[in-house]
Amino acid sequence: MQGEVDQPPMQMVLRVKHPSSLGGGGGGEEEAGEASSRSALSVFKAKEEQIERKKMEVREKELEGMADPARKEVEVIRKRIDVVNRQLKPLGKTCVKKEKEYKEILEAYNEKNKEKALLVNRLIELVSESERMRMKKLEELNKTVDSLY
C-alpha cells in the first residue's frame, strides 16, 4: 500500500518478578503494571482478531465475485423484474375493472338488441295487420262501387 511506512511489529513485554521483590514493599506497583500489560495484550489480540475477520470478509466477497461473474447482471435483472411487477399490479387491476365494465356493457347491449328485435317483430305484426285491414276495406269499397254500377 502506498503512503504507509512499515512499522516493526509490537513486542510483548513480560515482566518477571524477582524473588527478592516478593516479600516486602513495592509489590503493589508491579501488580498494577502486570494488570495493565495483560489488558494491553488483550486489546491487541482483540484488534488482531478484528483485522482477521475483516480480511476474511473481503476475501469471501472477492470469492463470491469470482465464483459468479453473472451475479451483478442477475441482480440488475431481478431489480427490473421487481419494478415491472410493481407496474403490472395497477395495470392488472385496471384490466380486471375494464373487463368487468365491458361485460356489463355487453350484457346491456345484448338486452337492448333483444328488446329491439321484439319491437321490430311487433311493428311488423302491426303493419301486416294494418295492411290486411286496409285491403279488407278496399275490397269492401270495391264491392260497394261495383254494386252501384
Automatic annotation (TrEMBL):
> Which InterPro entries does this entry report, sorted A to Z?
GORAB
Q: Where in the cell is it found?
A: Cytoplasm; Golgi apparatus
The cellular component terms of Gene Ontology attached to this UniProt record, alphabetical and capped at eight, are: Golgi apparatus
Q: Does the keyword Iron-sulfur apply?
A: no
Q: Which domain of life is it from?
A: Eukaryota
Family under the similarity heading: Belongs to the GORAB family.
Name of the molecule in the record: RAB6-interacting golgin
Q: Which organism is it from?
A: Leersia perrieri
What's the source species' lineage?
A: Eukaryota, Viridiplantae, Streptophyta, Embryophyta, Tracheophyta
